[in-house]
Structures are given as C-alpha cells and as structure tokens.
Amino acid sequence: MIGPPASQRPPRLVLRFALYSALALFLAGLGILWFVRHEAEARAEDEVTARVSSAAAMLAPQLRPSDLQEPVTGARLIALDELFRPELRGGILRVKLWRADGLVTYSNDRTLIGSTSLDSAEFEEVLGGRTIRELGHLNDEGGSGQNIKIVSAYVPLKLKGQRHPTGVLEFYNDYGPVGEQVSDTVKPLALALGLALLLLYASLFPILNQVTKALENRSRRLAQQAEELERTLNERRQALAGLREAETRYRTLVEQLPLVTYVSAIDKPGFSAYVSPQIEELLGYTAEEWLETPNLFWRVVHPEDLERVRTEHVAGYNAGGSFATQYRLLARDGRTVWVEDEVMIVHDSEGKPLQAQGFLLDITTRKRAESAVAASEERFRTLVANVPGVIFRCAIDADWTMSYLSDEIEELAGYPSSDFIANQVRTFGSIIHPEDTGPVAEEIERAVAGERPYTIEYRVVHRDGQIKHVVERGQAVVTPEGRMLDGAIFDLTDRNLAEEARLKLAAIVESAPDAIVGTDLEERITSWNLGAERLFGHTAAEMIGNNFSILVPEDRREERQELVARAAAGEDVRRFETVRLRKGEEPVNVSVTISPIRDLTGAAVGVATISQDITQRKHTEAERERLLLELALQNERLLELDRLKDEFVALVSHELRTPLTSIRGYLELLLDGEAGDLTDEQRQFLGVVERNAHRLLTLVGDLLFLAQVEAGKLSLEFGAVDLGALAAECVETGRPLAEEKGVTLTLATGPLPLLAGDHARLAQLLDNLVSNGIKFTPAGGRVDVRIRGERGQAVIEVRDTGIGIPPNEQEHLFERFYRTSKATEQAIPGTGLGLAISKAIVQAHGGLIVVASEDDAGSTFRVSLPVRQAQPGEMDAEEVAL
Amino acid sequence: MTTAGRPLVLVADDDPDILSLVAFRLERSGYEVVVARDGEQAVAAALERTPDIALLDVMMPKLDGYEATARLRGNDATRHMPVILLTARVQDADIARGLEAGADDYVKKPFSTQELRDRVQAALGR
Asked: Fewer Cβ close by (within 10 Å): the C or N end of chain A?
C-alpha cells in the first residue's frame, strides 16, 4: 500500500495534536468545575440533613395526630405557626406537614395546604426512614415567587404514642449560604489544577515538535523507497503477465494433445514433477493424485510388464538419451490400458541429467486390433484343423495348383500339405484316381462355367495304395490371386463303413426271429421287421406310420403306455409277459422287451419293442405244471405206499417173531432132550430146522432194521469203540465158516484211537462184510481184514479174492434186496439186505462205504469212519499223526 | 404164595404154544406156573395168587403188557412183584415204554427158554 505524499503530513500532525490537547484541557477544566460543584452540593445537603433531623426530632413530640387531618382548625394553624416559627428563622424557608396519602395538612405558606405532590412510592420510602434530598428552585413550585435555590428534605413523622410514622415533615432550605461556603474552599484547588495542566502542556510541546520532525524525515525516506518498489513491481507484473500468457498457451497445447505429457525428476521415474490432465482420462487418477502419491506409477504398471518396464527405465535413464517402450497400465476402474511411452532425458548445460520428460500414448485400441487379428487367425487355423475334411484353395488348372491346403490332406493322402502348395513336390491331380481324373475335371469345369457350386465324389489314392472315397464340394471365387477354386474334401470311407455297419445291423434286425418294432414318442410305428410280420400278420407296408395301439388289446393299453414311459425314462423293461393282437384281433401271448431309442444328444426319441411269441412256451409251461402236479401226487402216493410198506414190514417181522419163538423154543426143548433122547438122524434133521429158523430170524431182524432206517428211526447207542478188538471178535466169529469153506481169513490192525460209535451196529457191519467175503470166495481164496487210521479216519478194509462184482452192477450193490447176477446164478444164499444194512450203519456213523471190484478178481470193501470222541489218554504219537 | 417151597411164576401170553413152552421149561426147572391168556386174566391171576414173578407178553388182547404191568404196580399186593416183559417189539421206544410202565426186565422174542429161565432166576435172586 502506498501512502499520501510525505510533504503534507507534519503540519497536520502538529495541528491535530494541538487541537486534541486543547480539547483535553477544556474537558479537564469542565471536570474540575463539575467536581467542585458536586462537592459543594453534597456538603450543603449533609448540612441540611443534619439541620432538619434535629428540627424534626424537636418538633415531632409537639405535633398531634389531628395535625395530619384536614382541615386543621384555625386555632391549631396558629399554634402550629407558632411552633414552626423558630425553625424558619434558622435558614429553613418553608415547612409542610404531609399526610400519608400525600395531602398537605399544614404549610407555613397557606396556599399549599390541601395540595398533593409526593406519590405513594416516595411516601413509602420516606415513611420507611429515608430522607429525600433534592435541589430545586422554590419558584418552580409556584410558591413564594422568590427565585431561590433550595434544598428540600422530607423526614418521617412519628407522633407521640404511635409505633409507625404516619406523616412526613418537609423542610425547604436556602441553598445560597451553603453553596458559597463550599465554593470558597474548592475554587483555589480548581485553579491550581488548571494551571498545572497548562504548564505540563507548555513543556511537552517542544519535545513533541522535535519528534514530529524526525518522523517527518523518516516518512519522506519511506515514501521514496515505496515509489521505487512500485516501479519495479510494475515491471515484474508486466513480465509475469507475458509469462502467464505464454504458459497458458503452452499448457493449453500440452493439455489438449491426445496424449499425456509428463515430467519426472531424474531420480523418481513416474510423473513426479508434472503430468498433464489427460492422465485422468487415461487412467482415472487426477494429475494432483499423481504428484501427491509417490510410487503410484509403479503400482499401476501391469504386473506382467512391471519387471520389463523397470529394467527399461533404469537402462534408459542411465543411457541418458531417448527411448520408447510399450507396456500396460491398470486404470483405476480395472481397465488394462496399453501405452506407448516416449521418454527423453533432459540435461543441464554441464551435461548432467536434469529430468525426464515424455509422453504416453494410448495404444490400447491398436493392441486390441493386433490381438484380434491374431485371435482371428488362430480361430481360423483351429477351425480348419478341426474340420474333419480338407480345406483348399487352388488354381483352376490341370494340376489343381494349390495355394492353400489344410493339413488334413496328410491324413487323407499320406503326403504333407506343403508338397502340394504351388506343386512343389507333386500336384493334387496326381493323387486323384486315374479313372476319376477326367470326370472330376469335367464336372468342375461345368460348375465353374455355370458359376455354381459343385459336389463330386471321386477316389483318392493314398500314399500306401489304399483307395479313399471322397466327396468334394467347391465353388469358383474371385480372389486377389485371380479366379480360384475354394472347397472342402471329405473322406467318405468312414461313412461308408458306418453305412455298412448300419446295413448289417438292419439285416440282423430284419432276420431276427422276434418281432422288432420301432415307434416314435407318439407311438407311431417307424420300423417293422420280418419277425413282426410273422408274429402279428401285418406287413411293414401296412404298419409303418400306424399307431402301435392297433396291436394292443383294450385292457392292455394303459399297461403299454406305462411300459413305454418306463423304458423311455431309462428303466429296464425286459421279458414282460402280456397279450398282443394279431391281424384279425386274435390274441397272442408275448414276452416284450422295450428299450429306448436315443438321438445323438441322448434324448429318447422313441422305443424299440421286441416281442416274442410265448404261446408255445405258455403251453409247455402249463403241461409241465400239470406233470409236476401229477408227479407230486404220485410221489405222495409212493410215500404213502412206502410208509405202509414200512409198517407192514414192522408188523410182519413182529408177527414172524412170535411163531419163531415157538419154533426155536420147542426145537431147543427137543435138542435139550427134554422130550426124550434123539437119534442122530433126528438130531441132524432138527439141526436143519434150527439153522433155517435162525436164517428166518436174521432175515426178520434185517428187515426190521431197514424199516427203522428208512423210517428215520434208527438210533445208535454211541460209546467208545475199540475197532481193532471188535474186528478181532468178528474175525473169530467168521473163522469157523471160513475154515469150513477152505478160505484163509486174516486180520491186520494198525494203530487206531478209540472210535465213537455203536458197538453192536459196528459189529453187525463187520460181521456182514466178513461173512460176505467168505460167502463169495471159493475154496482156496482169502479174506483179509485190515483196520487202520488214515487222516483222521478209521478205515476198515475187507478184501477177498472171490468172484467179484461186474462194474455195471456195482452201483446197485447197496440197494435193498439187490443180488448180483453171479450170486443168483451160483445160488449163493442171501437176502440182498446185508450191504444195504452195512451202508445204513456206516452212514449213521457219518462215514463212507465204497467197493472196488473186478470181475473174477475179488472185491474190496472199504469203510471210512470219522474218528470222534477220541480218548486223549489212549493216543500215542503215531495216532496223533493220523 | 408158594406150594411146597416152589416159587410161583405167572406167565401171560395170548399164544398158547408159547405159554406151554414157557410153562414146560419153568416147571421142569422147579417153578410152579400159573398161566393167563390175556392181560385181564393176568392181572386177576396175579391178584388172586400173588405169584413170585410175572412174565407178561406185551401184545395181548384186552390189556397189553404195559397196561397190565401198570395195574400190578398200582396194587399194594403186587407193587413189588418182579415183572419181566416178553416182547416181539424190539425197538428202543418199545423197551423204554415197558420200563417206564414198571417192568424190571424184558426178553426179546424169539427167546431161548434157557435164557428166560436164567432171567427169572436172576430176578428172584437165586
């Protein structure tokens, strides 16, 4: 700020100082006067107060309550005048007597009686004990007409015998004498004060003047400097304005370029010093953010490019020249932005790198276009590679000179694509089957001439000599290379195979003995094989397109729908037996199997129903059922018969025993000589009788035993059996018979633990086997009995050198009443029960009996019994090893 | 009761031949024999004569041997009389039934009269 001219200031300052100080002096004088006067008045008042108080104190006892009533009688007025008179001489000008309601009841100036002046609030104050003092002029009251300055005072009036004041006594005092007295004392003081002030002022003035002059000089110098500054400032302002204009122009240029300009400190790559506002549009961060945020640049460089950009920047900054690079930045919203960064390092005059400056160009679109081209090329390449055929472009010439031929050709012809391009190794014409070359050329020529696409089938000869059927579709096109042929070649060989397979399958379906009918989802018949024709009587021509329901009886329609639905849903419907209608509504029993027909996507498009005529089977089944029933009945009858037989046998054996008892008993008596002595002949005859009675008894016993076995009533009395000892007994029993026949009978016993078994039955078994052996062995033969342990089994072997058993009879050997042909022929006595009983005994012991025999070469019966309940104490090491 | 010190044996069987045979053999062996042709007779004879031992056939008319044995066992006079059953039924179940009915022993038909005599002697403690 620049002040007013310096030359004008000093006189004014002095003048103002003079004026202000004079005014101050004047005011000080006024103050002194006010003080003096106030002091005088205060003194006068105090004096009056003292005076009226003493007056009131003296007068009050002489006043009566009636003096406060109106009107005060004439005599009392006079008396009161008398009373107050002395007071009036002592400087008091007037006396008034006030009633509480403000009415004057007495005044020494009679004109004032009956008037009112004090209000009730003032009265209250006075009656409460305060004395009101005030200055006034007597003539203001309209009273005596004298213009006298007075001090009036009110004193509460408490009459004799009263507790509270009931009236006020007012005195008017002449101020004059009091005021003069005061003035005399105060006036000299005031004068002295005023004089002192004047003196002070006079002494201050020269100092003031000197200061003023110094100030004047100083302000003049300042004014000169200010002027100079102003001039420089103006010059600078002008220069700045020029600069601003230039900067604005430059900035506008920079900030309107379609690129981001930046300046970076040499040690801080990124946009550390300046970046143009386009950066916000490019990346979403404002220019300010870039300057405020260190390292923001490195945070937005695409991670994949980060390492490269760093390296390039370090190298570029070190090299000090210019460099350009492309990389990706991540915008605030996540976009990837490709930029081209042109960096230039600026040096100072000494050649030291100063800063880096450069610009970023958004090349995202260009990059995208580049990658789109690449992607499109890749797409084309994979597309062509995935096409199951050969794609080509060739010249329309005799060699079909290829300008493009997809790699698939190698699969088709066995030669790489490059062989054919520009006929480098071979021509495409060379792989066309010689017989087809002509027709192919003709057909293509016709199509080209007619400007229409063509489809031709021909053969290609594969490198390995295989003939491939192909179909070629193509069309002439105009290309930058001229008129060319574009097309695709597909290998039909596979298709032919598929077709073949389909035909084979169709043939199978057609020749299948079962009816195979295809239907769509609406149950329309789509296929009908010969089997169907045979079963249902309709021909395929009649049925294709018709509804399947023609074949289904009314009451089976719902069932058919359900079966189809189940099959279509993927459920297994197999060999479902139902009824269908032949031509002419004749019902036929069929077994159906339904499977879904699916399209390539796996969706069911219909079902195939295989129906098999089961009329014959049903018939057979019924027949079988009947036979089975019959058989069961027969079986039951047989079982009943068997039971009756068993009962019969039991009964018979019992009934036979009783007479035998008598026969044997009496024979015994006779032979005992109880009926007298017998001759030898008699004894011999009775011996025969007894022997036959014994045979009969044995037979009865055997029959009974077998009856028991078959009734399942055979019960064994198990005990510990020493098989060796038992065998020895049996052999001894058989020995007389053997000796009688001239047969050698031997026993060999190996180590054997005790066996759990029925002693009596096992004895019976051994007896049977031994006696059989003797019976069927002629004189001079042998019967060898061996007992031994073998793998936890007790084995009994009875080997004879007898007549043997023909192989075809061996299987019946253990049947009841079965006798071999030889036994019958040679009349060897026997009932055919022994071996059946033996087998029953062996089986009851859980064992096995087998026979090995050769005709005329003897027989070996081998019994193996499981060793159970062996007595540990009676086993030795050898036995344990069994 | 015995006559002249000979033990009295009751033999019951519906077959007269067997009855004679047994009676003959026992009498020859020093026993006095009383015979019965059926079960009822046997029980009546036993109560009347209180024999020393009874040989009862199992299969008899009117009252079979089991039942007759049971009756004898039910009477105080014959409660402790030895009873031997003569039986053509030789199955285990039949024998068990006889012993359950109270018989002391059994002899299977056909039997040897000597064996029978031995059994009687054994039963009488001789």
From this structure: N
Maximum separation of any 2 CA atoms in chain B, in Å: 40
Q: Where are the beta strands (DSSP E) in A5-132?
A: 92-99, 104-107
Tokens 């997809």 -> residue = A406
Question: For A797-825, what is each residue's pLDDT tens digit?
Answer: 999 998 888 888 888 888 888 888 888 88
Query: Cβ contacts of residue A368 below 8 Å, gap of 6+?
Result: A338
Across chain B, how many H-helices and E-strands are there?
Answer: 5, 5
Question: What mean pLDDT comes out for the span A87-109?
Answer: 78
Residues of chain A contacting residue B19, judged by C-beta atoms under 8 Å apart: none
- Nearest CB partner across the interface for B21, out of A666, A708, A715: A666
Confidence at residue B10, expressed as pLDDT on a 0 to 100 scale: 94
B25, B59, B110 ranked by CB distance to A660: nearest: B110
Quick check: A669 contacting B, CB < 8 Å? yes
Q: How far is the alpha carbon of A657 from chain B, nearest alpha carbon, in Å?
A: 6
pLDDT, one tens digit per residue, over A377-435 is 887 777 777 777 888 999 888 888 998 888 888 888 899 988 998 888 899 989 999 98
Number of Cβ pairs closer than 8 Å across A and B?
Answer: 55
CB contact under 8 A, B24 and A697: no
Rg (CA), chain A: 80
Asked if the C-beta of A718 comes within 8 angstroms of chain B's C-beta atoms, the answer is no
The kind and range of the H/E element at A799 are strand A793-800
Q: What is the pLDDT of residue B92?
A: 67
In chain A, which residues have their Cβ closer than 8 Å to the Cβ of B88? Answer: 654-655, 657-658, 661
ipTM exceeds 0.85, yes or no: no
Report the C-alpha gap between A829 and A834 in whole angstroms: 12
Between strands B32-36 and B8-12, the pairing is: parallel
- Per CB-CB distance under 8 Å, the chain A contacts of B93 are 713
CA–CA separation, B87 vs A703, rounded Å? Answer: 17
pLDDT higher at A185 or B67 = B67
- Alpha helices (H) in A450-556, listed in sequence order: 493-511, 530-536, 540-543
Tell if the CB–CB gap between A665 and B112 is shorter than 8 Å.
Answer: yes
Cβ of A661 within 8 Å of Cβ of B18? The answer is yes
pLDDT of residue B82: 92
Q: Cβ distance A527 to A517 under 8 Å?
A: yes
* pLDDT confidence of residue A54: 79
CA atoms of A361 and B21, how far apart (whole Å): 148
- Mean pLDDT for chain A overall: 81
CB A112, CB A63: distance < 8 Å: no
- Rounded to a whole number of angstroms, the distance from the CA of B95 to the nearest CA of chain A is 13
Least confident of A174-183, A553-562, A641-650, A867-876: A867-876
Strands A322-330 and A336-347: antiparallel
Interchain CB distance below 8 Å, A665 and B90: no
Q: How far is CA A209 from CA A199, A205, A216, A217, in A?
A: 16, 6, 10, 13
A809 contacts: CB under 8 Å, gap ≥ 6: A820, A821
Q: By the 8 A CB rule, do B82 and B114 touch?
A: no
Confidence at residue A387, expressed as pLDDT on a 0 to 100 scale: 74
Q: What b-and-e string marks burial along A28-53, b requiring 16 or more CB atoms within 10 Å of the CB?
A: eeeebeeebeeebbebbbebbbebbe
| Min distance B92 CA to chain A CA atoms (Å) | 8
User: Concatenated DSSP letters for A394-455?
Assistant: EESSTT--EEEE-THHHHHHSS-HHHHBTTSS--GGGGB-HHHHHHHHHHHHHHHHTT--EE
Contact B61, B36 (CB under 8 A): no
Are B28 and A674 within 8 A, CB to CB?
yes
